[in-house]
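SAMPLE LOG
Freezer: B-3
Tube label: C17
Construct: single chain, 122 aa
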Amino acid sequence: SMGWPEYETYQQWLHYAEGSAMLPLMLKLYVSRLGEAGAPLAPRIDSEIANHLGFVNQSLEGAEWLVGDHLTGADIQMSFVGEAARGLRAQYPNIDAWVRRFQARPAYQRAIERGGPYALAN
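STRUCTURE (predicted):
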């Protein structure tokens, strides 16, 4: 456990971000490019997105960050999921508050200043 009681939870979030949560968000992006041909896939993809965002939202209940009481690499890794779900965040208030929290950090602001604004999936 690397001497950190929450190490396993930390590892879970690192793998969950790319191995599970991001997949339906990326599928939605790809399928949206297919127009009507992709329409039959939308309900299943939207259902999976709701499952994942519901899980993340519930995990953030009563917490400011995903692991422990401070920002960790888990929050950074999962930040792309939160930002990619921007059009849905009103339905997930804990995710919305978490995204606003990390976006308000001075380091995040400096990164945007240096790297320029970005928009996922645009």
